[in-house]
Amino acid sequence: MDQAIDLKREYEATLARPRYAYSSGARIFFRSMDRLAGKEETLPKVRVIESLASIPYRAWESRQYGRIQRHYGDPGIVHDAQEILRYGRAAQDNEVQHLRIIEEKLRAEAVKDPRYMTRPLPELMSESYNLFSATLARLGIRRAFLLNAEFEDHAEHTYAELVQAHPEWEEAPVEDGHAVREYAAYHGLEGFASVADVFRRIGLDERDHRNASFAFAGMREYIVRYEGMPEVPGERSAAA
Ligand SMILES: [Fe+2]
Ligand SMILES: [Fe+2]
Question: What is the pTM of this model?
């Protein structure tokens, strides 16, 4: 299915599409990431984004196990919870792939860790996001889905702008690394034509995450469709 996807066309569609009108909570969150990692889209900055990206999915998982434990006799609830669980696990794996690819690229370029990446800031940030995501997943799962949709919309645009800021990536061959090889196979590809395509593919994953998060939040009208796209998890069921 992936072969039918035109990565360049979808990247241009992301650049042309306005960002979602972020809530004030999401804006505060993005601004604090900018304050930590800078306004410019860089590899160390997307690494910060990726180091936080899997946290909400873990919070959803834990809340859904709780629901199953309480309502195991209700097939409707169990079915909904399992759909969120399955998707949450797949999304976490995918975010870890992104993180490993960025790490591999930073190592290949011998980029030194920026000062903000030394302890305790990254731990502090991920711990507070952890706590916040867990609380939100408990108190208002729909708001949790929506906040993640905003996070993923922001990530999709960040990757598009990162590729745009690196015209040299258009011709740059992909260095052979374990993470990138695994990632190509995950998408059923033999490899990537350029470094730009690797990051375009990651950006499109973020669009898929964004779409699924909007679907789970019951906001299907925000799904951005494209040729060759996978089925959107949560689109057909009413998750709670
Ligand atoms: Fe990601
Ligand atoms: Fe994502």
Answer: 0.93
